[in-house]
Specification:
single chain, about 70 residues, mainly alpha, about 80% helix, DUF1242-domain-containing protein
Length: about 70
């Protein structure tokens, strides 16, 4: 089943995209800032902004998602 049809998987993909984009912007800030008007890179640039500005909430959401995935396995 794809992540589009399962809400929990969709949230997991969005969280992982936000976390990965934030880390990539931290490591390579020039590449993302230079190409933020590009249609492909602009999505990741916006995800990086969300991850930087809402980092406590994103990290809390990651912990909650990890706990729900861990408890859901049993």
């Amino acid at each position: 089943m794809t992540a589009l049809f399962n809400f929990q998987s969709l949230l997991l993909v969005i969280l992982l995209t936000i976390c990965t984009s934030t880390y990539a912007h931290y490591v390579f800030p020039g590449i993302m800032d230079r190409n933020k008007d590009n249609y492909v890179v602009s999505v990741f640039w916006k995800c990086a902004r969300v991850g930087e500005r809402l980092s406590p909430y994103v990290s809390l959401a990651c912990v909650v998602m990890a706990a729900s995935k861990f408890m859901g396995q049993w």
